[in-house]
Every structure is written in C-alpha cells, then in structure tokens.
From TrEMBL:
It comes from the Eukaryota. SUPFAM superfamilies: Acyl-CoA dehydrogenase C-terminal domain-like, Acyl-CoA dehydrogenase NM domain-like, Cytochrome b5-like heme/steroid binding domain. The keyword Translocase does not apply. Residues 20-99 form the Cytochrome b5 heme-binding domain. It comes from Tetrapyrgos nigripes. Its cofactor is FAD. GO terms for cellular component: cytoplasm. CDD domains: ACAD. Belongs to the acyl-CoA dehydrogenase family. One of its GO terms (biological process) is fatty acid beta-oxidation using acyl-CoA dehydrogenase. This is Cytochrome b5 heme-binding domain-containing protein. InterPro entries: Acyl-CoA_dehydrogenase (IPR050741), Acyl-CoA_DH_CS (IPR006089), Acyl-CoA_Oxase/DH_mid-dom (IPR006091), Acyl-CoA_Oxase/DH_mid-dom_sf (IPR046373), AcylCo_DH-like_C (IPR036250), AcylCo_DH/oxidase_C (IPR009075), AcylCoA_DH/ox_N (IPR013786), AcylCoA_DH/ox_N_sf (IPR037069).
Length: 531
C-alpha cells in the first residue's frame, strides 16, 4: 500500500512525516454505518466511528446516506470553518488519503496574503501599484503578518474568549520586536531600538509603517484584544513622553515600553466624555502634593494599569497628572459589550496624594496636553476600523461563494451581490482616504497636523466607523443566524457586529467629530469669498 505525508492543515504536532494509507472511494463507501463510519473531506479519509457520538452538530447528520461513506467536502465546508480541521483532536481522525486526489481547499499559510478579491488593500494585491508604499513597507508588512499569524492570533482568540489580560509571554515578544514602542508612531523614542528584528531602521519608520502595524494586528475578529494589547499605553504614555519632567520620564517610559508596567489614560467621567472641559475630578494643592478626588469611567486597561494619566480640574482650568496605583486608587471592572481582555474600568481616586513633580505640562493648561493626543488616537482607531472591516468583506465574499442555497451559491442572488458592492465600495473609500491622510501626516509637523488635519481626521473617523457599522449590518444579513453566535462560521461577523460601535465612540463620537471637522473648515473660510 502506498504511503504519503500528513496533510498541511493537520495539527502543528503532526508536521512530522507520518506515513498515511491511501484508499479508493469504493473502499471508503463500505464504511457507512454506526460504529463503522468513514468520510472524505478535502481528499483526506476521516474515521468518524467513535467521534460521531461526540459530534457537536449531532450524530444523525453523519449517518445520512448523503454523508456516510462519501466525499463530503462541499457539505463540510458549508457548515464548518477550516480551522475545525486544524484542531489537534480532529486532525487525529485522519486515517488516510484518497489515492491520486489532491486537496481542493488550501488553508492560507501563516504570513501569506489573501487571494480573495478586496481581501487585501490594493497595494498588496497582485498587479496593483501604490505611490505610498516603498519596498521597505512591503518587507515590514510581510514580517508583521508573519508575527501576527504566528504569535498574536492564538493569543488574541484566547484572550478575547476568556476575557483575560494579554500574557506576559506575548508581551515579552512585543517587547523583543519593539512593537509596543512602534505603536506610538515615529519619533525619538525609537532611536537605538531594533525594530521587528531590523526590518526597518528607526529613522526610516514612518506613519505607513505604523498603519501596517495597526492593520495587521486587527485581522482576527477580536476587537477587545486590540485594546487589551496595551491600547491604554498608546493614549496614556504620549503625555508622559512629551510633558513629564526628565526624571519622571526616565523612570516611567522604559518599563512601559517594555511591557513590564502598564499605563492608562483616565480622562472620561460619568459627567464628561467628549466635553472634556466638564471634568469633575479635582486636584487641590497641599504643599508639594496634589490631593486628587474623583471617579473616571470607561478607562481602557484600567483594571491592570500601574499608572494613570489623569485629567483633573484645578483652580483655573485643567491639569494633567501622572498618578501611580497606590493608597486611595481603586479600580473596578466595567462589563462592556466587548471582551474584558481590554480591562475597561472605573477608576476611583480618594484623597490620593500625588507629588507635584508628577504634573504633566503646565498647571491649568492640561487641556492642551490632553487634546494634543487626540489626532493620533483617532487615526489609530481608523486603521483598526478599516482593517477589521476589510476582513468582514473577505468573510462575506467567501461565504457568498461557498454557501449553497436552492442549489446555487448565495452570490447568485442579486440582493447579496448588491450588499457586497456596498461593502467593497465603503472599505475602498475608507482605505484610500486613510492613505491620503497618512501621507499628509508623514509630511507635516505635529503642529501642522493639529492645525490642518485635525478636522479631516475627525471627519474620516466618523465616516469609517459609520461605514463599518453599515458593513456589520450587511454582513449579518448575508450570514443569517450564523452571525449571531460567537463561534462557528459567522464568528468574525458576530464579533464585528457587536463591537464595531466601539470605533464610533472611542476617541470621540461620530456626531462630535463630524461637527469638529466642519467647524475647523468654517474657521478657515476666507472672508473675501462670495458666490
Ligand atoms: C472531521 C469531521 C467533522 C468534524 C471534526 C466536525 C466538527 C464539528 C464542530 C466542532 C462543530 C461545532 C461548530 C463549529 O465549531 O464550527 C460541528 C457542527 C456541525 N457539524 Fe460537524 N464535524 C465534522 C463533520 C461533519 C459532517 C460530515 C457533517 C455533515 C453534514 C457535519 C455537520 C455539522 C452540522 C450540521 C453542525 C452544526 C452547524 C451549525 O450549528 O451551524 N459535520 N461539527
């Protein structure tokens, strides 16, 4: 009897060359009853005799004359995601291969690109060019995709499901590659660091590299994990890097960038969200200390943060302070629609004594410190939102092509094609606008970004998150009931439908940002123009 090697999609532990028997379809057909049940999936022969009783989809479906002893590849992929077959407990059910047959479904190998039309942005699609991305960006993207597929994916799925904090083991890998530092964008904090094993030099690193990094980490249908992967640092650390005293900076920044200590931005309150100036947490001077009292709400990474960058009301305005976890600081998890891996918390300050040396920027001028952070935060959310949206388009393209209805693929229905047309148009519009804005960021100073781009970033963010929410609705209609369960075929759709609202709220709500964009434009209207 001929031998072969175990198929490429089998479990990691079985990448060894294990001889497999070959069978004919006629031989398989003889095993078609209870306790003696074989089927063929993707050219591999599975012995389901014992598994049938444990099958999550029930045993009776497996004993149907259309299934038992047959090649069930089409039926199987109509009901399960490919990764079911990759689970070690199921890949062990393989007992052989069909003689002379090849796999018809080839799983995407870690690091590779999707071949599904619109499954990747144009610059990564064969035959397309782009004025924005250089060879180095392409190399960096390959390295990031590999890292995301091999290190982040499993962790993201596990944390999203269990609601646990990202593990120290993965944080150490983020530190080794300096991904945490790169999440803060280009700048002096990257100097002297080896980025992604040397894939990009610190002085070459630009906003397109950061865009790639943000997008590659957002492809698993795990919105909570994206924020759990130290989203609090992305928004909480810049005020320290840009406004803390040299001593404070030297003490705090390195440990946070190494993933050894955690920081959260604590601005929003039950009383004030987008209207930052309405904050009610107070800081009152007492000699060399501030005494801080108040409660912050919806604080990302708050449950596990060691440090908090806090907006406080002071005598003549707002002052931003760095507060360390200690006496008088309490955090309590808030149950939210996304996974508690994000560590969303209430943070209470009860007569907390904060050294005056922990003041970030000038007293009473903390609003400027807080606002200077917003453009980067919003731009980061846009990257995440567009990347996750594209994955949904890819999922729908696949599902519409493989799901059979009345003997034809779902995509044969004009109403489904119309939805796909809307989804593709939205994601392409968002991607192209995002790339245009990113290019401007690469050519502008921080001050110019605040002056010229803040409004546009606000407009783009609300446009992208609205597009994302419409796409979530369309995708839910295309997937039907499967879009309503957090496991199975529609897993990513369910997560996106449940969590796409986060992109619409975090960093500024859609209505506020649209208005900001228009107000910024109106401010610049020349007084001497008329119709
Ligand atoms: C190696 C063979 C198989 C394995 C390991 C397997 C495994 C599973 C698993 C893990 C689920 C739970 C849902 C999920 O995680 O996606 C499931 C559901 C299901 N399976 Fe299978 N299965 C196999 C073969 C088949 C076959 C041949 C059929 C034939 C029709 C079938 C029909 C179903 C059905 C109807 C469901 C419920 C789907 C739903 O709720 O949407 N399975 N199977």
């Amino acid at each position: 009897m001929a031998t072969t090697t175990i198929p490429s999609h089998a479990s990691k532990s079985s990448t060894l060359r294990i001889p497999l028997k070959t069978f004919t379809l006629e031989e398989v057909a003889k095993h078609n009853k209870e306790l003696d049940l074989w089927v063929v999936i993707n050219s591999n022969v599975y012995d389901l005799s014992r598994f049938a009783l444990l099958h999550p989809g029930g045993k009776s479906v497996l004993f149907s004359p259309m299934i038992a002893g047959r090649d069930v590849t089409t039926a199987f992929f109509g009901l399960h995601r490919q990764d079911v077959l990759e689970r070690p407990q199921y890949s062990r059910l393989i007992i052989g291969k069909i003689h002379g047959e090849k796999e018809v479904v080839i799983p995407r190998t870690p690091g590779s690109l999707s071949a599904v039309p619109y499954g990747e942005p144009a610059w990564l699609s064969e035959g397309f060019t782009s004025p924005y991305y250089k060879d180095n960006h392409r190399f960096f993207q390959r390295k990031m995709r590999e890292f995301a597929d091999t290190v982040l994916r499993e962790e993201a799925l596990r944390c999203e499901d269990k609601g646990t904090r990202i593990s120290q083991e993965v944080l150490d890998k983020l530190n080794e590659t300096n991904i945490l530092a790169m999440r803060l964008g280009p700048g002096p904090h990257l100097h002297g660091k080896q980025l992604m094993g040397g894939a990009v030099q610190p002085n070459e690193f630009d906003y397109f590299h950061e865009l790639i990094l943000n997008m590659e980490g957002s492809r698993f249908g795990t919105r909570g994990f994206i924020d759990g992967m130290l989203g609090g640092m992305v928004i909480g650390l810049p005020p320290v890097m840009n406004h803390a005293s040299p001593e404070l900076k030297a003490r705090i920044v390195p440990e946070v960038l190494q993933g050894k200590k955690f920081i959260a931005l604590a601005i929003t309150e039950a009383f004030a969200g987008s209207d930052v100036s309405g904050l009610q947490t107070t800081a009152v001077r007492d000699g060399d200390f501030w005494i801080v009292n108040g409660t912050k709400k919806w604080i990302t990474n708050g449950t596990f943060a060691d440090y908090f960058t806090v907006g406080c009301k002071t005598e003549r305005g707002l002052t931003t302070l760095l507060i360390e976890r200690g006496q008088g600081v309490e955090t309590k998890p808030i149950k939210t629609a996304y996974s508690s891996t994000a560590g969303t918390a209430y943070v209470t300050f009860d007569n907390v004594r904060v050294p005056v040396g922990n003041t970030l920027g000038k007293v009473d001028q903390g609003l400027a410190v807080i606002l200077s952070n917003f453009n980067h935060e919003r731009w980061t959310i846009i990257c995440v939102c567009v990347s996750a949206q594209r994955v949904i388009v890819e999922e729908c393209m696949k599902w519409a092509s493989q799901r059979m209805i009345f003997g034809k693929p779902l995509s044969s229905q004009p109403v489904v094609r119309a939805k796909l047309g809307d989804m593709i148009s939205r994601v392409e519009a968002c991607q192209n606008w995002l790339e245009a804005v990113t290019d401007q960021m690469n050519h502008m100073s921080h001050r110019d970004v605040a002056d010229k781009l803040a409004g546009q970033i606000g407009l783009l963010k609300q446009f992208a998150s609205k597009a994302g929410r419409e796409t979530a609705e369309d995708a839910t209609q295309i997937f039907g009931g499967r879009a309503l369960t957090p496991s199975g075929m529609g897993r990513l759709i369910e997560n996106y439908h449940r969590t796409s609202g986060y992109d619409a709220i975090l960093g500024g709500t859609e209505d506020v940002l649209k208005d900001l964009g228009v107000r910024q434009a109106l401010k610049k209207m020349p007084s001497n123009v008329r119709l």
